[in-house]
Amino acid sequence: MVRTQIQLTPDQYRRLKRWAQQRGISLSEAIRRCVDQHLEAEPGVPTRAQRVRDALQVAGTHEDPEGATDVAQEHDKYLHDAYRR
Question: Which of 29, 58, 67, 80 has the fewest CB atoms lying closer than 10 Å?
Fold first, then answer.
């Protein structure tokens, strides 16, 4: 993890501290969760679940009509190509 320092307004601190206590988590974990939630809500940015779903859809789709495939060796290339859409 990267250590950083932030400043909150007294109201933000109080509300975030209460939110963290209700969930039994640290203030740091509460901040990380809020940041993740906000960043995942950004339009056009796929969530982790969407990225996993997309990767699973690609699995097994690169068949060589002439026989054996090179997917075991070239899987990174195929995933890169699939995500470029």
Answer: 67
Separation of alpha carbons 78 and 23, rounded Å: 41
Tens of pLDDT, residues 34-78: 998 888 777 777 777 888 888 888 777 766 667 667 777 888 888
Question: Where would I find the H helices in the chain?
Answer: 10-23, 27-40, 48-58, 71-83
Q: What distance in Å separates the CA atoms of residue 35 and residue 29, rounded to the nearest whole number?
A: 10
- How many residues does the structure list for the chain? 85
Where are the domains positioned within the chain?
Answer: 10-58+73-83
Largest CA distance in the chain: 67
